[in-house]
Amino acid sequence: MDEFDFINKVKPTRNFSKQVMVGIGDDAAVYQPTNSYNQVVCVDTMVEGVHFLKNLSSPQDIGYKALAVNISDIAAMGALPLYYLVSIAIPSTWTEDELIQIYEGMEELSSTYKMDLIGGDTVSTSDKLVITVTVIGEAESHVQTLRNKAEDRDIVFVTGTIGDSSAGLSILLEEIENIHPTIQNYLVNRHKRPIAQVEAGQIIAELERASLNDISDGLASELNELVEASKLGMIINEEHIPVSKELRSMQDVYDIKKWILYGGEDFELVGTTSEREWDKLKQACTDRNITITKIGVVTNQHHNVLLKNRNGQMIQLKKSGYNHFNNK
C-alpha cells in the first residue's frame, strides 16, 4: 500500500469550517480559533484486541466508535467538536479497502457535527491495528464543567440509560445467549455505535456551576473520579439509575447490575449541579427530548461513593471498571 496514495483517498474534498486555513497536505494544519472561546483538546487510542475485535465489528463501526469516544470527552467539557486528526498504525492483516472503510465510518459521524479532518499520520506495524484520534473543540471562555466543581448537597444526575453497551458486548462475545433479536440488535448497536451527548453537554455548560464526566470506564469508576476531584462523597440510589427496557427485560436471567455499574462504554454524561439549577436543567433537557435522571446526592460527610441498594443497605462502590477483552 502506497502511503501517499492512501492519504489522497481518505483526504476530505471539502471543509465545513471557514476557519481551517491549512488542512491535510502540508506539514501541519492551521486553523483560526474563535475569539473569546477556549480550545478544548482530547486524544484517545484504540488498540485491536483490547478495544475492538476485527471479527466482531465492521471497519465502519470501528471508525465510527474511534471518533465517538473522543467526541464524548469534548461533550463532557461542555464544548462543541470542530476538528479531528487520525494517526493509524497498520499491520499487514488489514487491507486498504478495510482502512478506507474505517475513515468512512469516522466521516459518517463527523458530518453529523460538521467536523473537519485536518491531519494525522500513517505508519506500518508488525503487530495489531492501532487508531489514535485527536479531537479539537471549543467552548465559551466561562464554561468549566470540571470534575472538581461538585459541592455538598448537589444533585447527581446521568443522561440516557446505563449498561446497554456492556450488555451488547457480552452478546457479541457470546457470554450470554437466547436473547430476543430485537433486544439483541438494540444492545449490540449501543455498543458499536455510541452516541456522544454533545447537546446535553451544551445545556449543562449553561448552568451556573456543574461537574461532569463521560461514562467510558463504567458508572462506578466515573462517580469515584468526581468525588476524588471534588474531595466529597456521594449517595447513589440504585433504584433511580435509569435502565433501558431492553436491558431490564434480561434481569430475571442475567446479573444486569455488573453491566450497569462496571460495564462502561455507554458514553452518557454523569455529573452534579445545585438543587436550584437541577430543575432548570431537567426542564431544558425535557424540552429537547433528552433523558436525564437524578440518581443521588453529594455529601460532605464522607469521601466515598455509597450505593443504597433495593434492600436499603449502603454499599461502597469502588473505582473499578472491567477490561472485557483482557478478562475473557
UniProtKB/TrEMBL annotation:
Pathway: Cofactor biosynthesis; thiamine diphosphate biosynthesis; thiamine diphosphate from thiamine phosphate: step 1/1. Residues 154-305 form the PurM-like C-terminal domain. The gene is thiL. The keyword Amino-acid biosynthesis does not apply. Pfam families: AIRS (PF00586), AIRS_C (PF02769). Its EC number is 2.7.4.16. One of its GO terms (molecular function) is ATP binding. Catalyzes the ATP-dependent phosphorylation of thiamine-monophosphate (TMP) to form thiamine-pyrophosphate (TPP), the active form of vitamin B1. Residues 25-138 form the PurM-like N-terminal domain. Mg(2+) 5 binds at D217. It comes from the Bacteria. One of its GO terms (biological process) is thiamine diphosphate biosynthetic process. Mg(2+) 1 binds at D44, D121. It comes from Metabacillus litoralis. Mg(2+) 2 binds at D44, D73. It is an enzyme of class 2 (transferase). HAMAP family: TMP_kinase. Mg(2+) 3 binds at D27, D73, D214. Substrate binds at H51, E265, Y322. Belongs to the thiamine-monophosphate kinase family. It catalyses: thiamine phosphate + ATP = thiamine diphosphate + ADP. Reaction mechanism of ThiL seems to utilize a direct, inline transfer of the gamma-phosphate of ATP to TMP rather than a phosphorylated enzyme intermediate. Keywords: ATP-binding, Kinase, Magnesium, Metal-binding, Nucleotide-binding, Thiamine biosynthesis, Transferase. This is Thiamine-monophosphate kinase. ATP binds at Y103, G120, D121, R147, S216.
